Amino acid sequence: METLWFALVAAMLAMYVLLDGFDLGAGAIHPFVAGTETERRLIYQAIGPVWDGNEVWLIAAGGTLFFTFPRLYAAGFSGFYLPLMIVLWLLMLRGLSLELRSHIQNPVWSRFWDGLFFIGSTLLAVFYGAALGNVVRGVPLDADGYFFEPLWTDFNPASATPAVLDWYTIPGALALVALVLHGANYVAYRTEGPLNTRCRALRSAPGW
Amino acid sequence: LPGLAKRAWLVTLALTILTTIATFSLRPALLASFADRPWGVVLPVFAVTGLGAMWCYNLHQSDGRSLLASGAYLAGMMLSAAFTVYPNVLPAIAPEHSLTVSNAAGPSYGLAVGLAWRVVGMVLAAVYFVLIYRLFGGKVQQTDSGY
Prior knowledge:
The complex is a heterodimer of chains A (208) and B (147). With 208 residues, chain A is mainly alpha-helical. Chain A has 8 helices and no strands.
């Protein structure tokens, strides 16, 4: 039964990364591929109806962890307290950007939310990748099943103290680039014209 | 960043290799998961196939298939990570302190009841998922209202 729940939680998290991943990628690329207000709004309209549904998978996975693996939930949420608070704020800023941006037709207002949308999407991708990297590497759990990791250390591979962001933050960089690709694929799939062309160029591979 | 992003596929390939090398050199024990359960090799193979397929579909400018390929890559990477840490749910640097599926799980009664509720929840989520993507599928058109 425990193994089945482990597989279900892993599947839910994979589903979340698959679906909200293109939202994050679209947010990270939108200042570079959308040249005009119309193109920026096309990107928002491409992800607007689905982004909140996609985030349900994250909430479902978090809720499932709470009752299936309560010790993991307790240890993880206290040990990663600061990064999780940052992630929570970034999720809120992204949601606010998506919902409030087009309420007032003013360039200053739009650019402000565009900036927050870009920062929120980019940093979330990095934090998700770093979090997965930390879980795979292992955390300094004590005999009571608790730990604390600082947000960053000296980025020295020889350092004895692991941190959420340290030399092994490569998965964070990988997550950002992979989600940029996924976001470019989604925006290219949902749009036409110059925006589609720019997304195809962004995801270009050798030989293309 | 724009210059880097223009070669995003190549950077993804390079970082995938770098992450794999760094992970297995830091925790060689993770490789034992594949020795113990060889069927798990399909997961990283699925990820690599997704990355390769993305390159092919980019060549043919097939946006939908390229999106599916990047999804396969992400799912393959996530599930590979879950496979390698199992039976741990939160590995510790000192292995004897690791939280495993056995010592971190809730009571078995709760897990059984939760499974029944989950079936209902997943049916609802699946219906919503299909409905929303059918309603808002296809190429997006500029409108003055909404987002």
